Amino acid sequence: MALNEDFLGRVFPPSDPYQVGREKIREFAAAIGDDNPVFHDVESARALGYADVVAPPTFPILLALNAAEAAVRDPELGLDYSRVVHGEQKFQYSRPVVAGDELVVTVTIDGLRTMAGNDMVTARGDVTTVDGEPVVTTTSLLIARAEDGSA
Amino acid sequence: MTARIAFADVEVGTEVPSRVFHVDRAGLVRYAGASGDFNVIHWSERVATSVGLPNVIAHGMLTMALAGRVVTDWIGDPGALVEFGTKFTRPVVVPDDAEGATVEIGGRVTAVNDDGTVQVTLSAVCDGVTVLGNPRAVVRLA
Predict the structure, then answer these.
(1) Which of A12, B4, B54, B142 could form a Cys-Cys staple with B76, CB 3.0–4.6 A?
(2) What angle is formed at CA A84 by the lines to CA A83 and CA A88, rounded to 5 degrees?
(3) For residue A71, what is the domain's CATH number?
């Protein structure tokens, strides 16, 4: 199924605000086995100059993939989401996410192409605070693998 | 933000200490819960094999997170990380046993930039196979 080229460059409305919780950061850090005190202990984070515990570098994926999924599930795009795998991921940080942040994601479709029957969509997520301060830009390459035998 | 590694102490070729990580099924369940990624191929052998995978596979973002640990353990302050990216080239297959999968991740400095940042190129290997494609971080050192 061909991708709808009209989506190239499309900017989606900002996501609902995501409230970054201290316990969610601790839970995420524990799930990746990371006991660095800056992710768990408020005083350790403050000693490095942060207002509260810091989120590990890949934490913004919690917001980014949900926002990207909501965008690329638009049936008009023509991407078979049931076949999608995560091909590439990049984060460009203005600063780390910190507990207490209230964040919104604005998704832009930065790339669309089809190679050997694989449909590929590059979704960029600009993550800012609700006041518009840039925090991190996430770029996800989502690939809908070709149907067997169709490529 | 203050990295605990000084820019002046680093040159192209400087090694970033490598680590060995064990990823088991319980770890995948835990990561699914923490991240909200409940894709069935990360916990159901029945579904994973039905779509052509050898077994349940780890979340690519979990493997990337482990690579992130190697970087933030080196620099100390996660705020020193400027950029971090990878391709997900091969799956980390996680058998349903006590050991799970073993992933070894290391890195070295591959560029020293005029703006006080350095590029670290990582490698992530599981069962002799490279699982992350061109994983790279840019960090601002002290």
Answers:
(1) B4
(2) 150
(3) 3.10.129.10
